[in-house]
Specification:
With 480 residues, the protein is of the alpha/beta class. It contains 14 helices and eleven strands. The longest helix has 36 residues. It is globular and about 70 Å long.
């Protein structure tokens, strides 16, 4: 494909994408395929000779689209949103064209420097404490990770290295295996499974702190477990607090947890993967109060800030503590400016070496929408969630199962878990809308998350109509 054909094919693909998104609600939101469907639609080996581009494009609808779950559909209410906007797609196109692997400043100065500035821009939108910003002289700063899971792991490994160095400095006779065997980390029993996985990968005990009736962890619950573990000879070193849990969008009390972590010399990491985007709105910023106690903070702009996956923003107060855990400096990666104090080499801030030019997406989106436009988008989703909550509350057959703070509504039919399992299965089998469940206090609960960029009130109304029709049918069957 030469530049002339690329121009033509590129315009065709932009048209295809625009048509796809413009008409997405006409597609069935969840695919009707069985595992292994795709293998039988394509050859079992790559072609030996080139194929016509037209044939490849034809196969998008024949092979790919039948098996696509349409996350951008206004009828997709599962999990949490995944960001998407035309400016972000255009930025991704440019990133692909530049094709740099930005592991160091020298590998592509613009890739590194724009990322540093964009994380400062976003940090200021959130009104983060200045200790988290790089600026020109700060000790902290931000980095784009692939996912919140990766940010949680990076923070845990940095905390592990920090406690190891401190204990060995205090007692040079202590061996690493002896220290590691006693380390213990904490998270809420509502925390994402990736936090538990971080403990597995990091080779440390990860204990779940019991949450209260609001599905939140407070200071007393954490303190109690810490005291028990210290009495048992363990070494508390890390706590992951969650703001906006996956099951119910609950918020740990970081105003209580933070001072405890600080007094115990424990690293506090805050995972706000979904909810973090809302903190750019002044009316939701109080949910982040207590971040000043944290060592690291993370959320996913690729969830709710109109930035396409992947773009997970992470800030640390002291970047030296991250770099100290991951720094490897072979000769082939060194460059003239690395010790100047003027540049950042992001390979020292992450698990992988290579990294894409992801900050372009932030730059395009922030400039196209502006802070006001992004705030309006968040507020619209929250308003739609409250509209759905109101519909649920008006139907006495249903109950709301958690506070509706942002764009997630947890609800269920009054009755058994089996009844609600049947309700959700029937809804999803109908494929008019798509949701996923969770357990809250041993109850099977349906999660309704406002996700699509183009979701409007009419889609909420149609979704509720679908839910209530199916609920009525199921309840009538039971009565018979």
């Amino acid at each position: 494909m030469d530049p002339a054909e690329f121009r033509r094919r590129g315009k065709e693909m932009v048209d295809y994408i625009a048509d796809y998104l413009e008409n997405i609600e006409g597609r069935q939101v969840y695919p009707d395929v069985v595992p292994g469907y795709l293998r039988n639609l394509i050859p079992d080996a790559a072609p030996e000779h080139p194929e016509a581009y037209e044939e490849i494009v034809k196969d998008i609808e024949r092979v790919i689209m039948p098996g696509v779950t349409h996350w951008q559909s206004p009828y997709f209410y599962a999990y949490f949103p995944t960001g998407s906007s035309f400016p972000a797609m255009l930025a991704d196109m440019l990133s692909g064209a530049i094709g740099c692997i930005g592991f160091s400043w020298a590998a592509s100065p613009a890739c590194t420097e724009l990322e540093t500035v964009m994380l400062d821009w976003l940090g200021k939108m959130l009104n983060l404490p200045k200790e988290f910003l790089a600026g020109t002289e700060g000790q902290g700063g931000g980095v784009i990770q692939s996912t919140a899971s990766e940010a949680t792991l990076v923070a845990l490994l940095a905390a592990r290295t920090k406690i190891l160095k401190r204990l060995q400095a205090e007692n040079p006779g202590l061996a690493e295996p002896e220290i590691f065997s006693k380390l213990v980390a904490y998270s809420s029993d509502q925390a994402h499974c990736s936090v538990e996985r971080a403990g597995l990968i990091g080779g440390v005990k990860m204990k779940k702190i019991p949450s209260d009736t609001k599905f939140s962890v407070g200071g007393e619950a954490l303190r109690k477990v810490i005291e028990e573990d210290k009495a048992a000879g363990l070494i508390p070193f890390y706590c992951c607090a969650t703001l906006g849990t996956t099951p119910s969008c609950a918020f740990d009390n970081i105003m209580e947890i933070g001072p405890i972590c600080n007094s115990e010399n424990m690293w506090m990491h805050i995972d706000a993967a979904y909810a973090g985007s809302s903190f750019i709105c002044p009316e939701f910023r109080h949910l982040l109060n207590g971040v000043e106690f944290a060592d690291s903070f993370n959320f996913n702009p690729h969830k709710w800030l109109l930035i396409n996956f992947d773009c997970s923003a992470m800030w640390v107060k002291k970047r030296s503590e991250i770099i100290g855990a991951f720094k490897m400096d072979p000769l082939y990666l060194q460059h003239d400016h690395q010790e100047s104090g003027l540049v950042t080499d992001y390979r020292h801030w992450q698990i992988p070496l290579g990294r894409r030019f992801r900050s372009l997406k932030m730059w395009f989106v922030f400039r196209t929408y502006g802070l006001k436009g992004l705030q309006e988008y968040i507020r619209k989703h929250v308003s739609l969630a409250h509209e759905f909550e109101s519909l649920v509350r008006q139907d006495k057959r249903f109950e709301i199962c958690g506070d509706v703070v942002l764009g997630l509504v947890c609800f269920r039919l009054k009755g058994s878990n089996g009844l609600n399992e049947k309700l959700l299965k029937t809804i999803n089998n109908g494929r008019k809308i798509h949701m996923v469940p969770c357990y809250l206090a041993d109850s099977f609960v349906l999660r309704f998350a406002v996700c699509g960029r183009t979701t409007e009130s009419k889609h909420i109304q149609l979704a509720w109509e679908n839910i209530t029709e199916i609920a009525t049918e199921i309840l009538q069957e039971l009565q018979q």
